[in-house]
Amino acid sequence: MKLLRLVGVGFSMALRRSVAFRINLVFDVLLAFTGLGTAVAAVLIVFTRADSLAGWSKAEFLVLIGTYQLITGLRGTFIDPNLSWFPETGIRNGKLDGHLLQPASSLFLASLSLSSPLALIQFVLGLGVLGWGIAGQLPSVAGVLSWLVLVIAGLVVTWALSVLLACLAFWAPKLQLDVFFHSAWQLGSYPTDVFARPIRVILTYVFPMALIASVPSAALLRGPQTGVLVGGVLAAAGAAALAGLAWRRGLRRYTGATS
Amino acid sequence: MRTAVLLGFRLRQEVLEWSGAWWFLLTLVVQAVVAPLIGLFVWSAVYPDDPSIARYYVAVILVTLMTESFEQHTFSERIYDGTLSHELLRPQPVVIGVIGMNLAIRAWLTLLGAPIVLLTGIALQVGFDWTAVLRSTPYVMLAAILVFLWTFLLALTAFWTDRVHAVVGFGSQLTFLLGGTAAPIALLPDTWRRVAEVLPFYGMNGLPAEIAAGKGSGSMGYQLIWVVVLVVVVTVVWRIGVRRYTAVGS
Which of A25, A34, A85 best probes binding to B when mutated, by most B CB atoms within 10 angstroms? Predict the structure, then answer.
């Protein structure tokens, strides 16, 4: 409860700060629109040449893009402002020292205390595209519920992956994998069936980008599957536990950057 | 001659400096190849029996690696932190440093990305006609100049706004959509294709890749016209921008 209150206070402060810079607000809104427009346009071009892609119709692809955009928006709002460039900002510049001295969980402070409310524009636009995708054929209640569970699982996995990448900095402070993570993230905007088998296996089991959009979208469109739901929840729990463990191990190695 | 010597020195210095950041460069390689790789898989799924799709996209990956530009990081940040002043005080054009770093990063990206291109080509059994590859060389060089000029132009907006990354991000979206990465230009709907063939983005990516893949017959004149236009615009914007610049610090 205390942590939720902290998130709320941080979000409120960040929102007031963001709205003060109106030109930046306009830029971010425009970029969110053009970014989503580009993603949708790239897919619409494909559907001028084919009726389906890897078994997904145009409407289903819109659901996928909407879900991907929605999770990307949440990641940009709550995770990226904290863990982006963590080796540089957290470890080498010593910001982590400040977190360790505060009376709250250092993992929470380092990974979730800051937020970037303007990124929520992507979330809203994602919802719009999702609505566009399902407008023709409304999903079942069970489908919506399983989508919701899998989206939350996808968010937890996203947070855990970001924490795990940040934790690498405890062992290799110069290793900067943000660009790599953001690049790999783009693969989540397409169904894994599009890719060749080795990449499909990696995106499902090793670097589970499939859980970000493909799996929730399939659950929404084709109804819930118990195995997939259980697998998603277990993957989220496992990833979160692993992130917590890596953080604790990393902290034991950390000796502080400032004096 | 003096400018060429200075550029040579700067290039050597930057190549050596970046050699220590090979791991970061590798992540930039991944960033550069992801979008064309997605295009490759998507369009190969649409046309599974057409080998020219794979050949085209392998060429796009290579062209992308050889023409990547990051002036929003390497140049704009110097406006924001005020270190552009150091460059302005040197008895040489500021752009020499920018070009030197640009060429050094491209050289490293091409070197580190070559195995990925090779592996993709072998895995997909892509064969190239080497005369077409040779014929594409001047097109690739002009594409490299175009991408640099376009990115540098957008990076110059840092004189007016602190949202240069958003501006350059928007430019990258245009290049992705209309340059031949999202889809080969020939596969775009008619109206889009006609627009794409006129704008400079096709000359930055799709055209040289098509020539290397042995598909295209585009003209270098179109690229040259855009180089001239962008050089003029960059020069004008630089002159106006640098007058606005006020140094930070003492």
Answer: A34
SS3 state at A65: helix
Going from the C-alpha of B186 to that of each of A45, A128, B40, B177, B191, the distances in angstroms are 11, 31, 15, 13, 11
* Amino acid sitting at position A85: W
A12 touches chain B (CB under 8 A): no
The model carries a pTM of: 0.88
Inter-chain touch B189–A177, beta carbons under 8 Å:
no
A30: which chain B residues are within 8 Å (Cβ-Cβ)?
166, 170
A155 shares contact with chain B (CB less than 8 Å): no
Amino acid identity, position B119? L
Domain that holds residue A166: 2-253
Q: Which secondary-structure segment (H or E) carries A57?
A: strand A56-57
pLDDT surpassing 60 at residue A21: yes
Task: Tell me the pLDDT tens digit for each residue of A156-182.
Answer: 999 999 999 999 888 888 777 888 888
> Which residues in chain B have their CB less than 8 angstroms from residue A46's CB?
42-43, 46, 183
Q: How many CB pairs under 8 A join A and B?
A: 84
* Chain position carrying tokens 């040449």: A49
Asked if residue A258 is part of any domain, the answer here is no
**Which residues 61-120 of B are in CB contact (within 8 Å) with A?**
none
For chain A, what is the domain count?
1
Q: Which residue of B has its CA nearest to A29?
A: B166
φ, ψ dihedrals at A56, nearest 5°: -110, 130
Which tens digit of pLDDT belongs to each residue from A28-37? 788 888 988 9
Give the DSSP H or E segment for A53: strand A52-53
| B1 burial type by CB count under 10 A (0-12 exposed, 13-18 middle, 19+ buried) | exposed
Query: Does the residue A259 lie in any domain?
Result: no
Question: Is the pLDDT assigned to residue B20 strictly greater than 90?
Answer: no
Judged by CB atoms closer than 8 Å, whether chains meet at A41 and B161 is answered as no
CB A158, CB A212: distance < 8 Å: yes
Q: Which of A30, A46, A187 sits opposite B46 (nearest CB)?
A: A46
